[in-house]
Each structure stands twice: as structure tokens, then as C-alpha cells.
């Protein structure tokens, strides 16, 4: 074959190889063949997440950077792309290899560039195209082991003079690559049962994917109705685990005003789960305020509450302006005075003296409040059972004695108030010798006795 025929054959093979690469790896071929030049941009992608350690490059490190930048460990599914500038001689691929004029790594993360260039050049065999082999060799990360950047445990070690800076760049690049891959694929929405491109979907941190319209409508409805506990993944597996969305996920789906309401609802719910919560007594505020965590039990400072919204400081017992840890609450909240008044005979001189000293209206109001409180306590004691988890009282109208508190989700026995394990709450009622054995349901004696029907027998 003469030189002219060889050149024509090589041109045809080059064009064919380019078309194959463009059809298989359209994202890698970033330009047409200009003259004899070709540029390839090859992403480094792994089948699964790999451990990447960015370590200090002692050869380039200074005394300051070695102290500031420690070893950084990441879990990545991709590394920044490698850009190859290739010269294709007229006799490639039959007689001459392609020439790598330069190799550049995004963010300059890859060491040993010259060594990699030599390895790629040695992969060519006369009469065979090598561009596809190069792309595969780089794309699947096989070159990392060849360059001794990967150990036997498949951990990738990348030396760099500033590990902290490079680690952030690698993490951002991996996140961007994941977003790009997600937007290009199609996913089924388990709510509307339709398939959509990733650009119209939302992937939650649990891995489940839903179309943006469905998850947005669902979360907006939950936020509007105040059901903040349902703002999460609607997949049955995640619902069973009570998995809630985090702030980043909510911000990606709903508007800023709805995010603010969601935060407020979550804070309100979390505070109300605390039995020591006290609401601000100011009528225009009513902000829930928790008990100070750093105060010891029994200390007078435990009554102090400072509202974060209106800055009003007050006593948690009497709901009045803070009067110090030693000073007692105003007489209006003193049970001792009420008991002293009630123990005196009606119309007695002692009662009249108390009424004159503190005011008859105030005293009668205190007595009425005390009697109502005692009546409420008596009714609660006789007709309800307190949840052992949060002390909320529950009244049973019918059904079994296995209760689940709607506030703290604690399982407990309505008969004795014992906490029950969520995994097997009915073991409590099937344990021989226990006071609640076979007492899952309470039957009245008259309900069990047979009563003849009138007029049935003649």
C-alpha cells in the first residue's frame, strides 16, 4: 500500500473512530477533529462510592500548611474530569500512534501527569485505534492503580500541598456530577405512578425519588394544616420509620415563607413535648418557653423564664414579673392561704379578717380556683390515666387497655399505667401472675350474664 492509500485509509479509520466515540461517549468528545487535533474530556466515574484520602504532599508542603491542613477523607462516586489534547498524525492508526500534547486535570487534583502520558502512549498497537481504550482506562479509574494512587483496600490516596482546599473542590465536583447524572435520567414517581426526567424530580436523602409537583403539593398541604410530622418521605418504608425531611430538603421543595412556617411548627411541637414548657403570659406573645437546662432541681432560679420573643422575664409559677429566686409568689397563688380560709367556720371573725386583709373578691376567686382544681384532680384521678411518658391524661371510652399516647407516642397500660414496649405491647396482658393478666378488655359483670328476652317464653 502506497503512502497516499495509507493516508486515505487512516483518514477513514480516524473518522470512523471519532463517530464511534461520539455515539458511545458524547460527553467525552468536546470538539470536532480540527485538522489533526482532537480534545477529549473524560469524567472519572466509579460504580459505587469510593474512599478518597487527600494527604499532605510533603514535597510541596510548607511548615505552615502541614500544621493547618490535615489528612482529609471523603466518600466520592466521581473525580473531576481529565482533559486530553490529542494530535492524530496522518498515518494513525495503521503506522503511527497518536500524540498526547497535554493532559490537564480539573482543579489540578492528579499528580504524575507525565507518567500517565507515557502509560497512555504505550497502550497503542500498530493498526489499532486506541482512543476508546484511553477513555475506558481513564473513565473507570483503572489508571489510579497503575499510578500507585490506589492501595489493596481500594482506598485512593491523592497527595496535595493543601488537602483541605482540594477536599472541598472534590466534594463540590462530585455533588455537581451527581446532580447532572440525576437530571439526565428518568425516574418513576410512586405517588402519581408516572415517569419524569430527573430535572422535574426531587431525590430525598433516603434515596427515594418523587416528581416535584407531587411532593410539593403534599408538603405544602401538610405545612398548611400544621401536620409537620408528615413533612417527610411518603414512601411506606420511610413512613413506618417516621422519617422527617430536614431543612435542606424542605427548602428545595417549598417557598421561603412555607419553610419559615415549617420551622416554627417544628419548634412549637418540640417545645410542647416538654412537660416543663410554659407559655409567655403576655397576651400578644404566648411564645412557648422551655425550662432552663443549666438550673439545678429545687433551685429558686428554676422558676425564671425569659421570653426570647418579647424579652419579658416572669415567674413560671405565678406568671407575674420575675420577683427573684427567694421572694415567694404573690398571695393570689398561695394554697396555704386558701386552706387556712376554708378550715375556718363560715361567718367567723377570722374569715372576715382574711377577707379584709386581702380583699373579699380576691379571696373568693382564689377559693373558687382551688375548688375547681381539686375537682379536676379528683376527676382525673378517678376517670383518667396519666401517660407515663409525658404525663398527659387519657380517658378511655371503649376498647382495649393498650393505649398509645398521641403526644409522645408512648405505649402504656390503661389499667396500671405501666410503660409497654412498642415491639410487643400485648405481652403485659399475657404474663401469668401479673395483675393485668387477661385484662386486655374490661368486661362488666352484667354484660356477661345471660338475660332472658321478655315475651320469648310462653
Structural account:
Belongs to the RBR family. RNF14 subfamily. Residues 16-147 form the RWD domain. It catalyses: [E2 ubiquitin-conjugating enzyme]-S-ubiquitinyl-L-cysteine + [acceptor protein]-L-lysine = [E2 ubiquitin-conjugating enzyme]-L-cysteine + [acceptor protein]-N(6)-ubiquitinyl-L-lysine. Keywords: Membrane, Metal-binding, Repeat, Transferase, Transmembrane, Transmembrane helix, Ubl conjugation pathway, Zinc, Zinc-finger. This is RBR-type E3 ubiquitin transferase. Helix 11 packs across helix 13 and helix 12 crosses helix 13. The chain has 458 residues and is an alpha+beta fold. It has helices at 3-24, 63-68, 113-121, 131-139, 142-146, 163-184, 212-224, 236-240, 247-253, 256-272, 335-342, 349-358, 360-383, 445-448; strands at residues 37-56, 72-87, 99-105, 156-160, 186-188, 195-197, 201-203, 209-211, 278-279, 288-289, 304-306, 313-315, 385-386, 393-394, 402-404, 411-413, 419-420. The protein is built from 14 helices and 17 strands. The chain is 35% helix and 18% strand. The relative contact order is 0.05. It has five domains: 3-176, Ubiquitin Conjugating Enzyme (Roll), CATH 3.10.110; 188-272, 2-Layer Sandwich (Herpes Virus-1), CATH 3.30.40.10; 278-293 and 300-325, no CATH class; 335-383, no CATH class; 385-445, no CATH class. A four-stranded mixed beta sheet has the order 3-2-1-4. Strands 15-16-17 form a three-stranded antiparallel beta sheet, with no helix packed on it. The mean pLDDT is 84. The longest helix has 24 residues, at 360-383.
